[in-house]
Specification:
heterodimer; A: mainly alpha; two-stranded antiparallel sheet; 2 strands; B: mainly alpha; Four Helix Bundle (Hemerythrin (Met), subunit A); 2 domains; globular
Chain lengths: 503, 170
C-alpha cells in the first residue's frame, strides 16, 4: 500500500487535528493568528502535497485500497482528482481568510470553526478521489455533517439555526435516498467499485433494479449541487448561514457533487448515461429556468446568490448533457471561474455584513464611495457571473454552450436547451446588474464613512480578482490543466439513436 | 411445503411491515411514545431478518445500538417536548395526500423494477459470513479508508454538538 498517494489528505487531516488541539493552549487573543496559520498550512499543502501527489502518479491513474495490481481500488489518483484537489485547497485557503475576517461575528468557538472548515475540505478531497460508492458516501457524509454544524454556527441568530435545521433534514433525506440507491446498486451489481461496475455495465443496463438504484444515487448527488428537483433548500440555507460557511457551501460542496457526478455518470456508467441524455437535458433546462426566474425579485444579496447558485448548477449540467469531453472540459473551466467569482462576492458580503448588519441590496448603497476595493470586487464578480467578456465567467459559459451545439443535429432537444440557456443568460444580466446598480447608483446612503478592510480580506480579494482576469484573458494556462483532467474518461459513449460518428 | 426458514422470513417480514406502519400511522393512538415503542418492535423484527441472512453481528448491533441506545435517546427527546401538542394538531390534508402519493409512487417503481428483474441472477457472488472475524477483516483491510473517514466524521459531530449545545463558550 502506497501511502504517498494519500499525502494531501493525510496532511490536511493532521492540520485539522492540529488546529483543534492548538486551541487548548492558545490564549483567546491569538485565535485570528491561528486561522491565518491554518490558511498558511493549507498553502503549504497546496505547494508541497500536490507536487508530491503529481510525482507519485505520473500522468497515469494510480489506485489504492483494492486488489493489488488490479486497476480497481476504491481510491484513485488521476488528472481529474488532482485538478479537483487543487480546486478544493484553493477554496479552503480563501474561505479560511474570510473566516478570520468574520471571526468576531461568530462569537464563540472561533478555532473550531477553522477546524471544521478544514474537515469539510478533507471530505471534499476524498470525494475528488472516490472510485467506490462506499468512499463516495463516507466522504459526502463528512462534508454534509460538517456543513450542518457550520451553517448553524451563529446559534444566537434564529436564521442561522433555521438554515442548519433545514440543511440537516433535507440533507438527511437526500442521504437516505442515496444510501437506498447504493444498496440497490450493490444488490444488482454485487460490487460498489466504479471500475467493476464499468466492466459490467452492458448486463446492468438491462437490470431495472440497478437503474432504479442509480437514479436514487443521482438524486442524492443532485441535492448536493442544488439542481431541480432537489433545489428547495438552497436559498434559505444560503441566506441564513454565516457568510464564510455559505461561500464554502456554494463553491466546495457544489464542486464535490460535480466531481462525484462526473465519476458516476462518465466513469462508472457512461453507456447508461448516454441513454439517459433526455433526462439530463430536462434537468439542466429546468434548473436554469428555476434559478434565473426566481432570482429576479430577490432583495437579499445572499438569497440572490442562492438562486444564482441553482442557475449555475444548470449551466454546469449543460456540460454533462453534451456527453462530450469538451463538455466536461467546460464544466471544469466554469467551476474554476465560479470559485473566484463567488468567493469574491462572499468576501465582500462578509465585510459589508460586519458594518451594516444587513445583506439587503439597499445596504450596498454608497459602497462605491465607502470602499472602492469592495465595490469593484463585487461589480467584477457580478459581471463575471453574468458572463461579460473578458472575465472568467464568459469563457466558461461559452465553452459549455458550445459543447451542446453539435448535438442538436442528432436531437432537436439540444437546440431547445440551448435556447433556454441563452434565455437564462439574458435574464441573469438583469439581476446581476441590479447588484452593480445598488453598489454605484443605489440612491442616498445614510452612512458614507469609509469601510476599512483587514489585510487577509485584501489578499483574498486580490487573489479572486486576479483569478477572474487571468482565467478570462489567458485561458490557455487553465485549459492545459482541464484538458487532461477531462480526458480521464476517454471517448464518451453516445445514445444508440445517434450516428456512430457523432463525436 | 415451504421450508421453516421461509416461514420465519414471512413472519419477520410481515411483522416489520406491520410495526413500521403502526409506527408512522397508528389509527388508535397519536401518542409519540407509542410510535417509538412500535419503532423498537420494527427494529427487533428487522434484526430477525438479519439473523435469517446469517448476518449475526449486524443483528446483535441492531438490537444493542438501535433498539437500545438510540431509542432511549428518542424517548428522552419525546419526553422533553410537549406531548399534548401532537394530539391537538390537525392532520394536514395536502401533506397527507402528497406523502401518500410519494410513497405509492416509490413503491410502484420499486415493485415494478424487482418484478421485471426476477430471475436475473447476481453476478459472481462472493458472500461473507456475518461473523465478527470476517467482518473485521474486511473493515480493516479493504474498507479501512471509509472507516477512518467516518472516525473523523464522529469527531466533527462531537465538536459540533458541544458547540451548538453548550451554554456558554469562552
Amino acid at each position: 500500500m502506497n501511502y504517498s498517494l494519500l499525502q494531501v489528505e493525510l496532511l490536511v487531516a493532521l492540520l485539522g487535528l492540529g488546529v483543534l488541539l492548538a486551541d487548548l493552549w492558545l490564549p483567546p487573543r491569538h485565535r485570528r493568528a491561528l486561522g491565518l496559520a491554518a490558511a498558511a498550512g493549507l498553502m503549504l499543502v497546496f505547494i508541497v502535497g500536490i507536487r508530491g501527489a503529481v510525482d507519485t502518479y505520473a500522468g497515469a491513474a494510480e489506485y489504492a485500497f483494492g486488489a493489488p495490481k488490479a486497476r480497481t481500488g476504491m481510491y484513485v489518483l488521476d488528472n481529474l482528482a488532482v485538478f479537483f484537489k487543487q480546486f478544493f485547497l484553493l477554496a479552503g485557503i480563501l474561505v479560511l481568510l474570510m473566516s478570520v475576517e468574520y471571526s468576531d461575528r461568530i462569537g464563540s468557538g472561533v478555532s473550531e470553526f477553522f477546524a471544521l472548515v478544514i474537515f469539510a475540505l478533507l471530505g471534499m478531497l476524498f470525494a475528488a478521489s472516490a472510485n467506490d460508492l462506499v468512499l463516495l458516501f463516507a466522504s459526502l457524509e463528512l462534508v454534509t455533517i460538517t456543513f450542518v454544524v457550520l451553517n448553524s454556527y451563529q446559534r444566537g441568530r434564529a436564521a442561522s439555526i433555521e438554515a442548519g435545521v433545514k440543511y440537516l433534514i433535507m440533507g438527511a433525506l437526500a442521504s437516505a435516498f442515496m444510501v437506498f440507491g447504493i444498496a440497490l446498486v450493490f444488490g444488482s451489481a454485487n460490487t460498489t467499485n466504479f471500475s467493476e461496475i464499468h466492466a459490467a455495465q452492458k448486463q446492468l443496463a438491462g437490470n431495472p433494479v440497478f437503474l432504479v438504484g442509480l437514479a436514487m444515487l443521482l438524486g442524492g448527488l443532485l441535492f448536493k449541487i442544488a439542481a431541480v428537483p432537489f433545489q428547495m433548500w438552497a436559498p434559505d440555507v444560503y441566506q441564513g448561514s454565516p457568510a464564510p460557511a455559505t461561500a464554502f457551501l456554494a463553491v466546495g460542496s457544489k464542486a464535490a457533487g460535480i466531481v462525484l457526478l462526473l465519476r458516476v455518470l462518465f466513469g462508472a456508467v457512461p453507456q447508461i448515461t448516454a441513454q439517459w441524455s433526455h433526462l439530463l437535458v430536462w434537468i439542466a433546462a429546468l434548473t436554469i429556468l428555476y434559478g434565473s426566474l426566481c432570482a429576479i425579485p430577490q432583495r437579499s444579496l445572499k438569497r440572490l446568490m442562492g438562486y444564482s447558485s441553482i442557475a449555475n448548477a444548470g449551466y454546469l449540467l449543460l456540460g454533462f448533457a453534451s456527453l462530450r469531453a469538451e463538455g466536461v472540459n467546460g464544466v471544469l473551466y466554469y467551476l474554476a471561474g465560479y470559485l473566484f467569482t463567488v468567493l469574491a462576492a462572499f468576501a465582500v458580503v462578509c465585510v459589508v455584513l460586519r458594518h451594516t448588519d444587513s445583506d439587503d441590496l439597499s445596504a450596498l448603497a454608497g459602497l462605491g464611495q465607502r470602499s472602492p476595493l469592495l465595490a469593484g470586487a463585487l461589480a467584477l464578480a457580478m459581471a463575471s457571473l453574468a458572463g461579460i467578456p473578458p472575465l472568467a465567467g464568459f469563457l466558461g459559459k461559452f465553452l459549455l454552450l458550445k459543447s451542446i451545439v453539435p448535438n442538436g443535429a442528432y436531437d432537436p432537444g439540444y437546440y431547445c436547451l440551448l435556447g433556454v440557456a441563452v434565455f437564462g443568460v439574458v435574464v441573469s444580466l438583469y439581476y446581476y446588474f441590479g447588484v452593480i446598480r445598488a453598489v454605484y447608483w443605489g440612491g442616498q446612503a445614510s452612512d458614507l464613512s469609509p469601510i476599512a478592510t483587514s489585510w487577509p480580506v485584501r489578499i483574498a480579494l486580490a487573489v479572486c480578482i486576479a483569478g477572474i482576469f487571468w482565467l478570462g484573458l489567458f485561458p490557455d494556462n487553465l485549459l492545459s490543466l482541464t484538458g487532461p483532467a477531462a480526458g480521464v474518461f476517454g471517448k464518451l459513449a453516445t445514445p444508440a439513436s445517434w450516428p456512430a460518428n457523432a463525436h | 411445503m415451504p421450508a421453516f426458514t421461509d416461514l420465519l422470513f414471512l413472519a419477520f417480514a410481515g411483522l416489520t411491515l406491520l410495526f413500521g406502519f403502526l409506527c408512522v400511522a397508528n389509527p388508535l393512538s397519536r401518542n409519540p411514545v407509542t410510535s417509538a415503542m412500535f419503532l423498537v418492535l420494527t427494529i427487533v423484527s428487522l434484526a430477525g431478518l438479519y439473523v435469517l441472512l446469517h448476518a449475526f453481528f449486524l443483528a446483535a448491533v441492531q438490537i444493542l445500538v438501535y433498539a437500545g441506545a438510540v431509542m432511549v435517546l428518542f424517548l428522552f427527546v419525546i419526553m422533553l417536548l410537549d406531548l399534548g401538542e401532537e394530539d391537538r394538531r390537525k392532520l394536514n390534508r395536502v401533506a397527507l395526500i402528497s406523502g401518500t402519493a410519494a410513497v405509492l409512487g416509490l413503491a410502484g417503481v420499486l415493485v415494478r423494477a424487482l418484478w421485471s428483474a426476477k430471475g436475473a441472477a447476481a453476478t459472481g457472488a462472493t458472500l461473507v459470513e456475518g461473523n465478527t472475524a470476517p467482518l473485521g477483516r474486511i473493515l480493516f483491510q479493504s474498507y479501512v479508508l471509509p472507516f477512518e473517514i467516518l472516525s473523523i466524521l464522529l469527531l466533527v459531530a462531537l465538536v459540533g454538538v458541544i458547540l451548538l449545545s453548550k451554554k456558554e463558550l469562552k
